[in-house]
Amino acid sequence: MEYFHKPVLLAEVLKYLNCTNGSTVIDCTLGGAGHAEAILDLITPKGFLLGIDLDIVALNAARVRLARFSQQSFSLVKGNFKDLDRILTDAGLYAVDGILFDLGVSSVQFDRAERGFSYRFDAPLDMRMDQGQKLTAADVVNTYAGEELVRIIRDYGEERWANRIAALIVRARRNRPIRTTFELVDIIKDAIPAAARRRGGHPAKRTFQAIRIEVNGEIEILEKSFRDAVKWLRPGGRLVIISYHSLEDRVAKIVINDLSKGCICPPGLPICKCGRRPELKIIVRGVVRPTPGEIADNPRAESARLRVAERL
Ligand SMILES: C[S@@+](CC[C@H](N)C(=O)[O-])C[C@H]1O[C@@H](n2cnc3c(N)ncnc32)[C@H](O)[C@@H]1O
Which residue stretches of the chain have pLDDT < 70? Predict the structure, then answer.
């Protein structure tokens, strides 16, 4: 089956990564290598790209897509970008020109029914990006305490009906385990009042997002990963982060704003005592969003927000 994921904000990624023939670039979320292929076109023959992904299906597809580049031009690693320090050290790198994060799941992960990410297909509740990982969506739904489910669905899904959904999950699983995506969709539909179900897209969208984030531990690794990434950039190197929901973007914003701050002494001190120097320069204030044309062409780009900063 073809692996098809349209890279989001591609022209903007290439522009802001600012890479040229000879650059070294890290793609922390390789996916089907849509961004990586276009980056390699710019940085080869002299440059080098290291691509990281948790998903072996994505890595295999990326390898096929990048087959036209020489083997010295790129290296693909199965791993988690939370281990960036170890991965880049093992690869023998010491400073790089660009680091890209294109967060979340790919279209292919969503669209392959058997991965269990989508409320549109009936499949076992899986949702693992790394298919070697033990924890699945079925484990979360069937073994987490009710209060934990409320917290996850409310915080990661920003779902106002989190209490009711968690209560119905707990009630349903008393009879027998909830095994499939459609069983979970039915429970969510029962939990959300009919009037509310007619607004805000598919009623299961927010709960599925929340459970997926929990299964893959997506949020808690971000802050450290972004901070580690900055340390690997050489002066003038660029960090580009594309996020797809406010929780991810909030972490990107906090880290970039924090590292671009200089002195934090209380106002009124005659000289700086803290000695803090900014590590990053913000290249674009706020976020870059896809154009209406890109969204019309690729509706999944709609929620994308890109932030970019440069190492000082
Ligand atoms: C939005 S897709 C990237 C698509 C890619 N930019 C392209 O153009 O094809 C996100 C990818 O990142 C991977 N991923 C998500 N979190 C990860 C993590 N913590 N470490 C490594 N890969 C991760 C997912 O498995 C998925 O393949």
Answer: 1-3
Q: What CATH number does domain 10-104+219-311 carry, 2.60.40.10, 3.40.50.620, 3.40.50.720, 3.40.50.150?
A: 3.40.50.150
* Closest alpha carbon to 197 in 182, 212, 185: 185
Instruction: Using the atom order of ligand 1, give the atom closest to the CA of residue 30.
Output: 5
* Cβ-based neighbour number of residue 124 at 10 Å: 15
Report whether 141 contacts 133 (CB < 8 A): no
pLDDT digits (tens, 9 = 90+) for 12-34: 999 999 999 999 999 999 999 99
pLDDT value for 282: 97
Q: What local confidence, expressed as pLDDT, does residue 52 receive?
A: 98
CA distances (Å), origin 29, targets 51, 77, 241: 7, 10, 10
Tally of residues, the chain:
312
Query: pLDDT value at position 61?
Result: 92
List alpha helices for the chain, DSSP H. Answer: 10-17, 34-43, 56-65, 84-90, 107-111, 137-143, 146-157, 162-175, 181-191, 194-197, 205-215, 222-232, 246-259, 292-297
CA atoms within 13 A on the CB side of 43: 27
Q: 115-215 belongs to which CATH class?
A: mainly alpha
Please list every protein residue whose CB sits less than 6 Å from any atom of ligand 1. Answer: 5, 7, 29, 31-35, 52-55, 58, 80-82, 102, 104-106, 129, 221
Token reading at 218: 């997506």
State the closest ligand 1 atom to the C-alpha of 5, by its place in the atom list counted from 1.
Answer: 9
CA of 9 to the centre of ligand 1 (A): 15
Pairing between strand 48-53 and 74-78? parallel
Nearest to residue 14, comparing CAs of 257, 238, 267?
238
**From CA 292, how far away is CA 5, in angstroms rounded?**
19
| Residue whose pair of structure tokens reads 């967060």 in the numeric block | 103
